[in-house]
Task: inverse folding
C-alpha cells in the first residue's frame, strides 16, 4: 500500500486540563520526533505524522509510550469528488494486494471534526456507494468482513482500513525519574518497562554479587532492549559491587536473615543513587509471595529503612502474567538465558521477619557503614 501519513491517537492525555494536556502533547511529539524523524501536525486530538521512512515508522511507533493506536492513511481534500477518487484508488490497492476481496461484506465508519454541509451518516452512505460501485460487495454494518474508515477533519480527509495498537500509557518523561533495581531475572525488567509506560524516566541500578553469582552480560542486553522503548529519554545503567556486603551478612548475621538484609541494603543503596540522580522513587520487581523476601512481613522489614517510596508494579501479578509481558516486550528470552543463580541465599530463608530483630541486626553488623563502602564502588556501565 502507498500511504501518505500515520494518523496517531492518544488516550488519557485527552482528559487532562488544557495546560497539562499541552505539556504532555508537546512531550509526546518530542519523543516521537527523537526516535522517528518526520513532520508532525497536532490536529485537535490527533497527530498527523509524515515520517521520513514509512516502513521503519510502522515498527518503531509500536514502542512510543502515549500512543494508543495509529493508522497508515491516505490524505485527500474534503470534497465529495476528492473523497470519491481517494476511495476508488484506495480500494484498487486493497483489491490488488488481496487485503479486501470483492466478495467480502463491508462497512464504512465515518467520523467528522469541523463544520461540513453533510452529516457523518450521509458521507458514510456516499462512500459506501463508491465501494459498492467498485466491487458489488454487500454492506453489513453489524458484522462486516471488512471496515473502511473515513475521518474528515476540516478541509482534510483521511482514508484507512486498520488501527494498529500502540503501547498506550503516558509519554515518557512526564512523570519524573525513578531508580529501577534490575537483575538478570524475568521480573525486574518487566517492572521497569511498566513504569516507563506510566511516563517515568528510569535510571537502572544493578548489583554485582560476585563471588556468589557468576559474571553475566544479561543485564546489559536487557537495558539495550529497554532502550528501544525510551525514545526521547536516556537510560543510564549503574552497578555496585555487592559481594563483600553479602559475605559480611552471611558471616555476622543469622543465616536465615541473609535475603532480608540483602534486599534492605539494595533499597538503601538505591536511595543514595536517587539523591544523586534527583529521582523520586525506587522501582523493583516484587510480586507478593513469589519469593522469601516478598512476603508481607519481609516487605515491611526490607523497606522500613528506605526514605523514598518503593513502587512494585508487579505486586499483584503471578509468574505467568509477568512472563507474558516479558515475551511481548522482548526481555523474557534474555532473562531466561542460563546463569548460576545466587549461592548466598540460605536453604531456609526467613519468610516472617521480625522488624525489631532486623533493625537490631543491621546495627550489629554496622550496615550503614558497609553500604557507604558499597556505594563508593558505583560505576556507570556503557550499554551502547
Result:
Amino acid at each position: 500500500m502507498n500511504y501518505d501519513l500515520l494518523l496517531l491517537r492518544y488516550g488519557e492525555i485527552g482528559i487532562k486540563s488544557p495546560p497539562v494536556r499541552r505539556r504532555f502533547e508537546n512531550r509526546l511529539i518530542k519523543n516521537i520526533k527523537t526516535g522517528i524523524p518526520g513532520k508532525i501536525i497536532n490536529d485537535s486530538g490527533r497527530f498527523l505524522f509524515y515520517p521520513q521512512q514509512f516502513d521503519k515508522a510502522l515498527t518503531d511507533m509500536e514502542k512510543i509510550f502515549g500512543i494508543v493506536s495509529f493508522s497508515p492513511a491516505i490524505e485527500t481534500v474534503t470534497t465529495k469528488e476528492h473523497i470519491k477518487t481517494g476511495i476508488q484508488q484506495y480500494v484498487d490497492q486493497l483489491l490488488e494486494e488481496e487485503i479486501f476481496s470483492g466478495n467480502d461484506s463491508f462497512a464504512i465508519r465515518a467520523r467528522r471534526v469541523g463544520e461540513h454541509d453533510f452529516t457523518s451518516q450521509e458521507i458514510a452512505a456516499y462512500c459506501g456507494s463508491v465501494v459498492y460501485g467498485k466491487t458489488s460487495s454487500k454492506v453489513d454494518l453489524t458484522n462486516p468482513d471488512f471496515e473502511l474508515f473515513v475521518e474528515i477533519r476540516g478541509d482534510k480527509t483521511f482514508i484507512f482500513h486498520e488501527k494498529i495498537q500502540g503501547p498506550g500509557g503516558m509519554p515518557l518523561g512526564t512523570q519524573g525519574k525513578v531508580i529501577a533495581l534490575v537483575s538478570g531475572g524475568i521480573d525486574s525488567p518487566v517492572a521497569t518497562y511498566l513504569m516507563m509506560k506510566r511516563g517515568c524516566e528510569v535510571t537502572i541500578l544493578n548489583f554485582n554479587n560476585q563471588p556468589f553469582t557468576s559474571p553475566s552480560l544479561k543485564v546489559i542486553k536487557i537495558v539495550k532492549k529497554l532502550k528501544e522503548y525510551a525514545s526521547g529519554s536516556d537510560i543510564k545503567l549503574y552497578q555496585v559491587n555487592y559481594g563483600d556486603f553479602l559475605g559480611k551478612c552471611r558471616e555476622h548475621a543469622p543465616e536465615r536473615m541473609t535475603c532480608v538484609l540483602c534486599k534492605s541494603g539494595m533499597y538503601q543503596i538505591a536511595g543514595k543513587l536517587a539523591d544523586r540522580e534527583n529521582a523520586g522513587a525506587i522501582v523493583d520487581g516484587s510480586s507478593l509471595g513469589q519469593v522469601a523476601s516478598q512476603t508481607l512481613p519481609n516487605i515491611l522489614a526490607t523497606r522500613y529503612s528506605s526514605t523514598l517510596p518503593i513502587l512494585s508494579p508487579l505486586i499483584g501479578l503471578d509468574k505467568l502474567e509477568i512472563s507474558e509481558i516479558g515475551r511481548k516486550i522482548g526481555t523474557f528470552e534474555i532473562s531466561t538465558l542460563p546463569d548460576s543463580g545466587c549461592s548466598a541465599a540460605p536453604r531456609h530463608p526467613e519468610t516472617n521477619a521480625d522488624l525489631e530483630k532486623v533493625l537490631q541486626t543491621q546495627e550489629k553488623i554496622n550496615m550503614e557503614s558497609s553500604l557507604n563502602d558499597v556505594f563508593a564502588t558505583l560505576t556507570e556501565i556503557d550499554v551502547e
